[in-house]
Write a structure and sequence with these properties.
The complex is a heterodimer of chains A (about 325) and B (about 300). Chain A has twelve helices and no strands. Chain A has about 325 residues and is mainly alpha-helical. In chain A, helix 6 crosses helix 8. Chain B is mainly alpha-helical and about 300 residues long. Chain B has helices at about 1-5, 10, 15-20, 25-35, 35-55, 90-125, 130-140, 145-155, 160-185, 190-200, 205-240, 250-260, 265-295, 295-300. Chain B has a single domain, classed as MetI-like fold, CATH 1.10.3720.10. Classes of the chains: A mainly alpha (about 325), B mainly alpha (about 300).
Chain lengths: ~325, ~300
């Protein structure tokens, strides 16, 4: 197990290196020559050349990549072109709403989707099953901003139950915090719910047809225990895998959701950075999100043995 | 209007009455409809959207970019079916013309990502030496969430429909290459491929005659899902201002422009939203139906 964990962790290094290389190339290839900008309009080509040399921009690509990586490893993500603040500082300021939104959405989706999938598999072929599958298709087809506006219009503008926009920090009370994130969570969660409900249903269908489930039923185990204890436990590995992979959908969706609901998180930061072409910020956010995504999936891989002790590495 | 030419197979489809075979064969058509309701429903919806895109100038539209400052933010009425936006442009015309961008981007990304993905997948499946390197690179690309990857690429380039297509295709093709590589790896061990190798068939012929035809079913199913996903990503990119240039009416752009006013004039956002959802739904239905019909193994898994 330990050997596997070490091997699995080592295997993420080339992936992370590639992501870093990609993100670095982004800045490298970005239009606009920083040396020319710093030198100003009056500068001669010789001046620009001197500034370029003093910034180290004339050195080979790989040397610059190495130095950039060294800085990243030490937590230095560079400085924003627009605000002149360190990127890591800007990210730290914006991380709470995004983390809250994502964690809430994952919890909410799991709580909703897994029972839906289990029931759909149990009532396979009935109208309940069909309803869940239709919900799943709609979930895949409704872009997060469409659902976001629909929910905000209904529950905030028309019914006035929840705040229309904005974010309330958890430090200002748990209930206002939940109220401010309720609609974004549902909007962001639908596609994730669709994904999880589908995979849960499919895996449960497979598991429910196995002999040990029949044995459990035959010896008189209650329906609920068969479904949620015997069967679901063995369906856990594929479901958990999709929970991990689906985080990519959530990250992309969070960027959009935060725009719809005016939540001052990393998504807003990304959108603002794009509109201002603030490359160091774009770089930092892409790097951070990808890193989180890789780590989540690493954790999922390592958790397999917890869910299924038969898996030995 | 490249969509008209590329999709002319659909566009010139004859009327339903002409399609329906003589009564003796009608039973077969009905059987197909009954057995594949999702393919028929999705296909019909998509066909309607394609027709709308092609026939946009004849559907009672006006110039979707014509400004009319005197007629700003009019509510939907007999004259302006979907109302007007904050610059006085007719939202109905913009939404109808906007369908072109979504469909072009959806189909183009599906085609491009499938082609590039198949190519990389074949190389990876056949050339052992390149396999590890290629798949690590694919893993790396796949570990950047697609919308973020597309955003990052769009930040590098000028906003244009072409660049949007390329950016989304780059985000989507690694999954295709993984899929094709998997199919190739399982196919090369099959007796019929071994027999072809043993009888001296050259590699290009084996790929063309034995491998490619067998990748077609999963590839087509996958292409429909890429198409749906590309439409959503295009709209999302345009919505946050990193997609199709604002002068071109696309559903994401219309929604982005309606954003500032949406609490007072929600219809500007809702009309393109409904069209986008229905179009994506039609493609997803088609994909689900195709998967169930073509690839029972995959259907069981999802």
């Amino acid at each position: 197990m330990l050997a596997y964990a070490v091997r699995r962790i080592l295997a993420t290094i080339p992936v992370m290196l590639f992501v870093a290389l990609f993100v670095f190339s982004l800045l490298y290839l970005a239009p606009g020559d920083p040396a020319a900008i710093i030198a100003g309009d009056q500068a001669t080509p010789a001046d620009v050349e001197r500034i370029r040399a003093s910034l180290g921009l004339d050195r080979p690509f790989l040397v610059r990549f190495g130095e950039w990586l060294w800085q990243i490893v030490h937590g230095n993500l560079g400085t924003s072109i627009f605000t002149n603040l360190p990127v890591s500082h800007m990210i730290a300021q914006r991380i709470e709403p995004t983390t809250s939104l994502m964690v809430l959405t994952i919890l909410f989706s799991i709580v909703v989707a897994i029972p839906l999938g289990v029931v759909a598999a149990w009532k396979h072929g009935t109208w309940i099953d069909r309803c869940v599958m239709v919900l799943a298709v709609f979930g895949f087809s409704t872009p997060v901003f469409v659902l976001g506006y629909l929910l905000a219009y209904l529950f905030a503008l028309r019914l006035d139950w929840l705040p229309v926009q904005g974010f309330t920090s958890i430090s200002q009370g748990f209930v206002p915090f939940l109220r401010s994130l309720a609609l974004p969570t549902i909007a962001l969660g639908l596609i994730y719910i669709a994904l999880l409900a589908r995979i849960t249903r499919a895996t449960m269908l497979e598991v429910l047809s196995q002999d040990y489930v029949r044995t459990a039923k035959a010896k008189g185990v209650g329906q609920r225990a068969v479904l949620f204890v015997h069967a679901l436990k063995n369906a856990a590995v594929p479901i958990v895998t999709i929970v991990g992979i689906g985080v990519a959908l959530l990250i992309g969706g969070a960027v959009i959701t935060e725009s719809v609901f005016a939540i001052p998180g990393l998504g807003r930061l990304t959108v603002d950075a794009i509109l201002r072409r603030d490359y160091p910020v774009i770089q930092g956010v892409v790097l951070l999100f990808s890193f989180v995504y890789v780590l989540v999936n690493l954790a999922v891989d390592l958790l397999y043995t917890v869910f299924d002790p038969r898996i030995r590495y | 209007m490249s969509s008209a030419t590329t999709r002319s197979g659909f566009a010139s489809a004859p009327e339903l009455a002409d399609v329906l075979p003589p009564p003796r064969q009608r039973g077969k058509v009905m059987t197909f409809v009954r057995r594949n309701p999702t393919i028929v429903a999705g296909g019909a919806l998509l066909l309607i959207m394609i027709l709308i895109a092609i026939l946009a100038p004849f559907l009672g539209t006006v110039d979707p970019t014509a400004l009319a400052p005197a007629k700003r933010t009019r509510e939907p009425s007999a004259q302006f079916w979907f109302g007007t936006d904050m610059l006085g442009r007719d939202v109905y015309s913009r939404v109808i013309y906007g369908s072109r961008i979504s469909l072009i981007v959806g189909f183009a990304v599906a085609a491009l990502a499938s082609a590039v993905g198949t190519f990389i997948g074949l190389i990876s499946g056949f050339i052992r030496g390149l396999d590890t390197v290629l798949m690590r690179v694919m893993d790396g690309l796949m570990s950047i969430p697609s919308i973020l990857l597309a955003i990052a690429l769009m930040a590098l380039t000028r906003a244009s429909v072409q660049n949007v297509i390329i950016a989304i295709a780059v985000a989507e093709f690694p999954r295709v290459s993984r899929l094709i590589r998997g199919v190739v790896l399982s196919l090369r061990e099959q007796p019929f491929v071994e027999a072809a190798v043993a009888s001296g068939t050259r590699m290009p012929m084996i790929i063309l005659k034995h491998i490619l035809p067998n990748t077609l079913a999963p590839l087509m199913v996958n292409a429909t899902f890429i198409c749906a996903s590309a439409m959503i990503i295009e709209a999302s990119l345009s919505f946050i201002g990193a997609g199709t240039p604002p002068i071109i009416p696309s559903w994401g752009n219309i929604m982005a422009e309606g954003r500032a006013l949406w609490q007072v004039k929600p219809y500007i956002v809702f009309f393109p939203a409904v069209f986008l959802s229905v179009t994506v739904l039609s493609v997803n239905l088609l994909g689900d139906g195709l998967r169930d019909a073509l690839d029972p193994r995959l259907a069981k898994r999802l």
